[in-house]
Amino acid sequence: MELKETGDGVDSWKEVNLIYNAALKQVETKMQILNEEFQHVHQYNPIEHIKSRMKTPESIVKKLKRHGKESTIENMIEYVNDIAGIRIICSFTSDIYRIADMLRHQRDIQVLAVKDYITYPKASGYKSYHMIVTVPVYLSDRIVDTKVEIQIRTVAMDFWASLEHKIHYKFEGDAPEHIQNELVECAKLVADLDARMLMLNEEILAIGQGQNDHG
Ligand code: 0O2
Q1: CATH number assigned to the domain covering 13-155
Q2: Cα–Cα dist 157/111, whole Å
Q3: Given ligand 1 and candidates 75, 118, 159, 165, which is best to mutate, with the most ligand atoms within 8 Å of its CB?
Q4: In the chain, what are the domain boundaries?
Q5: Residue among 82, 87, 167 to mutate when testing ligand 1 (max atoms within 8 A of CB)
Q6: Which of 13, 19, 101, 118 is 20 to 30 Å apart from 176, CA to CA?
Q7: What is the reported pTM?
Q8: Is the CB of 159 under 6 A from ligand 1?
Q9: What pLDDT, in 10s, does the model give residues 32-57?
């Protein structure tokens, strides 16, 4: 796979790869620090685990084609928002907004776009909170504000999305109707499970609080 080199800032695939990788590491470290601090202050870990990945050159070219764009370095930087992607998996729906807020308040993070598929799930049943942010990457001679796509979702939402993703690819986006319907039903079960687990957790926290107040 060849990408034409036309940009006059970041101008080679190797350099792009280096910069996006650095951005990914920075966001990952930020998340780990926030999680550790949260654990220290509130004795609770909002983050279950973090997955990060660089989009393959093949997927980048595919996405550019889908947008009707030529495969150039300039275009991939401008139009492909998820070259660097990080997925944050948490226990409860309430953690999602807590994590998003913590990120939003970091001085060097700029939020470019948000897609709240938690409040507004996709017709397929997909739920997740997406943020496109930039982080400054400090090179020896300049600073490059670099885009990272952050997806925040619960363990249950992630389980659903992984299977749906596999099905989507297997049927090239045209799964049989009964499978699509079943996925929508499963998404409802996931939403119900998330809501019940959250309620259960809040009840347990309230009991703990009550015991502290009386002790
Ligand atoms: P892949 O293979 O995961 O990388 P944009 O990135 O903004 O140009 P889009 O699709 O408008 O394109 O953005 P959106 O809706 O925020 O989706 C970005 C990513 O979210 C997707 O990347 C998927 O990873 C995930 N996603 C979005 N919708 C669904 C869905 O219905 N099911 C599942 N399982 N994942 C979804 P890619 O590049 O499409 O795919």
Answers
A1: 3.30.460.10
A2: 23
A3: 165
A4: 13-155
A5: 82
A6: 118
A7: 0.91
A8: no
A9: 999 999 899 888 889 999 999 999 99
